[in-house]
Sequence to fold (236 residues):
Amino acid sequence: MERTFPSHGTKSELHGLTVVVETHAGDLCIGRCYDVVTEGVILLDADTHAAGSEGVSRAVFLDRAARFGVWPKQPRLIIAREDVVSLKLLADF
Amino acid sequence: MPYSPLMVRPMKEELTSIGFEDLTTPEQVDAFLAPKEGSAMLVINSVCGCAAGMARPGVHMALEHGVTPDRLGTVFAGQDLEATARARSYFADIPPSSPSIALYQDGELVYFIPRHRIEGRSAEEVAADLTSAFDRYFAMPAE
Fold:
């Protein structure tokens, strides 16, 4: 089904939605999108799975997030545009 | 600081008018979730647009289904702070989000819809998720 998004004035259509940002380094950043601007993606209440980190695997991190959401470990996170490989809704995982 | 009770009242009434118990204290939450028999739905309500556009209408539609929970309760995030914290303590492994919806069967959490499964979807899709869960967890086995 094609998604439609409510308007949020001057902000991105993803404003307020929980998204997954994959970076060139292989990190997964998941949080509530505040805006997508020239400089990059601004997330609120985010959590990050760093590539190569110990602990839960990237797949498990993503699976848990898709089922239950993420803990708000980073109140505000900015991912530079040049680092972004993909930007998707968490609900699509 | 909590929201004005006057502001959230109509948002609460969308649920209380269809049979939800408004749980405003930790004690009320405990009493609602204490029974170890039967089924229950707990809605963590909120002021955000996805609660207004998808969650509450979706819950409303789902309760027109043939199979529904025995008990209905709601807390309001950002308003009834202690009650919401107590409700979340019953599923402490799950990150906090609102709106969200928890289903219980015989005192056990059996299904949970976090905010990101509500936002960006339609009320009909939320209702479909709920009715599917009602059938799966609450339907009486065929004789």
User: Anything to note?
Assistant: Residues 58-68 of chain A form the longest helix (11 residues). Residues 12 and 36 of chain A are 6 Å apart (CA to CA). Chain A touches chain B through 16 residues (CB under 8 Å).
